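Hey team,

Filing this mostly as a record. A colleague (T.K.) asked me to run one chain through the structure pipeline before their review meeting, and I want the input and output archived in the tracker in case anyone asks later how it was produced. No errors, nothing strange. Just documentation.

Input sequence:
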Amino acid sequence: MLLPFYYEATSIGDAWFMLVYNIFNPIYSRRYKIDRGSYENNERLEYFWVMIRIKDPSNRPLAVQMPEGSNMPAPTHEDEIEQYFVNYLMNDKLEKNELYRYSSSIAPQLPEVIRMLKETPNTNQACITIGRPESIKLSDPECLRILDWRVIDKKLYVYVYFRSNDLYNAWPTNMGGIQLLKEYICEETGLEDGEILYSSKGLHLYGFSEELAKIRTGKNDKDFITTGISGKDDKGDNK
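Output structure:
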């Protein structure tokens, strides 16, 4: 029986490293052929269910870091995270070949969420939903679905749900961009920065990323970390 994976991380980099490490543990993940979706007819390794608490997502650098002296390419960079925040979470103007951006849903709701958090911080209604009813018919519908905002002790927390998420290449950029969005809302509301709480039933590795993931974590298939408590900080969606 597959089990959910829960981890309390100190930073985005810490969370990413532990997610990449533990996805190879068969008690948390399964391998299957994709019938519909990105890279159809190929296989991917996917978590059954993931819950991650990132206690200090503002820790810089936001981008996941490779070990000193490593020649491995980093999955993202600070500039890429900044551009993702500006263009895909804030700017809702589409290019000719685009059907949507996450900002298509975020931008219309963001002013009301900011007003709500400013005037009535103790509420369960500051929830941004991403997607439209017709998205179900798209060949590549939105992966990010919920950004649910909550104020606890004057700190702003965000509860994030992805229906599907590429762990190795997209997740670090996604989390960095969401952290910048949270910091923007904090500036607009006067709230302090809080945690990111992430969940997904579709966090996965594609086959072409698996070897990189194993090299990065320095592991073999017999080595697993099966506890859900915070470990050392490794400084480190498909989109």
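Quick notes for T.K.: Confidence is low (pLDDT under 50) at residues 224-236. The first strand starts at residue 5 and ends at 9.
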